[in-house]
Each structure stands twice: as structure tokens, then as C-alpha cells.
Amino acid sequence: MSATDSPAGHGTTTPSTASKRGMDIVMLGHTAAGKTTYVSLMYDAMRTGIEGFSLRAGDPGDHDTLVAAAKRIRKGHYPPPTSQRAVFDFVLQHDGRDVLPFRWRDYRGGALTQRSVDSPDVKQLHQDLTQAQGIVVFVDSQRLLAGAGAVKEMRRITVHVQRALDARDGLVTPLVIAFTKCDLVDIDDEAVQLRLSEPFQQVAAGAAASETVCFAAVPVSCGSRELNIAVPVLFSLLYALAGRALELQRSVEGKLGAAQDAANRITLGNSLSAWWNGTSSWAEISARRRREALAEYALLEPLLGSGQRLEELLRGYGWAA
């Protein structure tokens, strides 16, 4: 029991922020991997909704920018490569109700090609990946099949990713490898699939052996024939919902345990002393902890329902575990 819970004090408590935080999804990939194109088409597809799930942008300006970009892309006007980082604040909605805020970070730092772990760029990348609740690596399928240089670059990215996963200390982490431009390669050819997956075999094996890393390799097309546009973000959000639900469940259980602990200390003498001194009695502390638990459970319940529906949706795509 903390000092703020003691009846010797005034019982001031700090509300839990666990349920109020959004989540971060970090998007990695080299220039021209299709990240800018993807986020525009993904948002445009999700804003209108897929079986009850939709996105809204936190900034109306981002909404306008992404929708306009999606229209240009569908007319064949693709955005030029850029070295600038982009951050978008979105909210996942289910049946028109806000479910989970999240931040989509497009990481284009020079750290992706650096080997030293001591450079400022690499340190920032490691921090971003370690703190992220989801990681999506975008891979240019055409470029990866074209030469050994791209394979080495992808292996460097996987080293950064694996290092961050090892430092996350058991946190639930969705990891998606999105193979872009798959409409420009023979993605159904087993030999092509083997060559594309080869740089990521170690990460995939590590994920398979982990109880907390949820891995998916997803072919994506943002060209004339769009394919799996929503899957990378929905897969990430499914496990983010699961992780947030687990976090809230533990918080609820902790508050209920604290409420019971306080209830076990209730005595008539303590109640009279607290009344006389103007402090919080154990009875008041117990009641407050129960109210906090109920408030967090009210946040947990819709997450559980939305998570189940989202898992069913992704199972239809063939991507949920």
C-alpha cells in the first residue's frame, strides 16, 4: 500500500493513465518501399469502414492530405520518395465508437543503413522500436529480388528489429513484414516466396519461439490491383487491443486486491480516528479502489468485444493466429 493510500495522509491518488494512452506503430522501410503510398491508401480504405471497423484521423488536415493523396495514387500519380519522417494520429473505431487511439510513425532515419549501435540515429531508432506497440517493416519486393544489396539492407533492418524485441521484456508485440509491389512479381511462385522470405528467417524463427511476438508476412499491392491494404494495420491493432486488454485486466485485478487489502484493515477505531483527523479511512480507501477498478473495467469490456470481432475478421483474411 503506497503512502498516498495510508489513512495517515489525505488519501490523494493519481488516476491510472494506462487506459488513456494510445499506442505507437513504427513503420520501417527504405526509400521507395511504398510506405507513403501505403498509409494513404490504407487510411482511405479504413475511413469508410471494413465490417464495422474504421479509422478517423486525429487531425482534420491529415484526413484531407491522405484522402487527396489516395485519389492521386488511384489515378496513377504516385508520391515521390521522401526522407522526412511522418507521424499520424489515428483512432480505431468499431461500429462508430472510438476503441483505441494509436500513432503511426513512418521512420525514415539514416539509422536503417548504419551498423554502429552508438550513433544518435541508431539510438533513437532503438528507443522508438523498444517503446513501440507494433512494428511494420515494408519491403520492396521487386528491389529485394533484384540484387544482393537489398538483401543486406533488409538484414540490417532485421538486426535492429530483433535487438529491440529482445529489449522489450515480454511485452506483446505484433511484427508485420509487408512485401509491397507484389503485383509486379510472381508472388505465387514458391521460389520467389523463398527468396523474399530468406532475409527474415531468423526474425520469423525468433517470433515462432516467442510467446509475445506475433508475426505475419503479408504480400501487399498498392497498384491497380489493391491487395491486403488493411491487413498490416489491422493485424497490428488486433494484438495491440489484446495487449491493452491484458494491461487493463491486470490493473483491475490490482485495484481490487488493494480494495480488499484496505477492507481487511477496517476497524471502528480507524474510522473514528480518520473522521476526527480529517484523513482517509481504510473504508474510504477500499471504496475508492473499487470505484477505480469498475471504471477501468468499463474501459476493458468494449476492448474484449472489439478484439474478438477483429480476430474473426482477420481470420477471414487468413492472418489471425
Describe what you observe in this structure.
The protein is α/β, with parallel strands linked by helices. The protein folds into two domains: 23-243, P-loop containing nucleotide triphosphate hydrolases (Rossmann fold), CATH 3.40.50.300; 244-317. The protein contains ten helices and seven strands. It has helices at residues 35-47, 60-74, 120-131, 141-146, 148-166, 190-197, 201-209, 231-264, 268-277, 282-317, and strands at residues 23-28, 53-57, 86-94, 97-107, 134-140, 173-180, 213-219. Strands 2-3-4-1-5-6-7 form a seven-stranded mixed β-sheet, with helices on both faces. The longest helix has 36 residues, at 282-317. It is elongated, with a radius of gyration of 23 Å. Residues 1-20 have low confidence and may be disordered.
Q: Key terms for this structure?
A:
single chain; 321 residues; alpha/beta; Rossmann fold; 7-stranded mixed beta sheet; 10 helices; 7 strands; 50% helix; 17% strand
